[in-house]
């Protein structure tokens, strides 16, 4: 089971438009929905991104806010993990300074999840299980990532692939 870093969610939003690493898209299309989790911290970061985007481009901000509310919240319903007392205690025991990274690693460790991120070197201190799907090549190499996205899981199509 996997805890997705904010950068993973952001990248997957652009999969249909070709603005996503093909390996990441292929990996995500092959993972069952119930095995993917999101930290409340990542949700906050996505909402902050929408608010910052609003300052520059209200139209893009509106689309991003709608995507968060209608797609992300729905796709991860029941699988958005809070920063609770157990996570705080775990983060305090790590060699990180108090930070977002410490809380994300602590969430992964507390829930026994693999942290999926492009930035594995940023999270090594706590020794969580880490996975970087950028450049991932599925075992069945005969299918390209766009085919996988079209034939992949319904959650993948509805959450990350936009027309």
Question: What do these coordinates show?
Answer:
This protein is an alpha/beta fold. It contains eight helices and five strands, in the order E-H-H-E-H-H-E-H-H-E-E-H-H. It has helices at residues 6-13, 22-29, 40-56, 58-75, 85-93, 100-110, 145-151, 154-160, and strands spanning 2-4, 36-39, 80-81, 114-116, 130-131. It has a five-stranded parallel β-sheet. It starts with a strand and ends with a helix. The mean pLDDT is 86.
Runs in which pLDDT lies below 50 for 5 or more consecutive residues are none
Distance between the termini: 28 Å
Rounded to the nearest angstrom, the radius of gyration is 16 Å
* Estimated helix fraction: 40-55%
Q: Strand arrangement, largest sheet?
A: 3-2-1-4-5
Gross geometry? globular
Q: Element order, helices and strands?
A: EHHEHHEHHEEHH
Judged by helices, strands and strand pairing, the structural class is alpha/beta
Write down how many β-strands occur, each being a DSSP E stretch of 2 or more residues: 5
The residue-averaged pLDDT reads 86
Could you describe the largest sheet, including whether it forms a barrel? 5 strands, parallel
Assembly state? single chain
Q: Can you count the helices?
A: 8
Q: Could you tell me the strand content as a percent range?
A: 5-15%
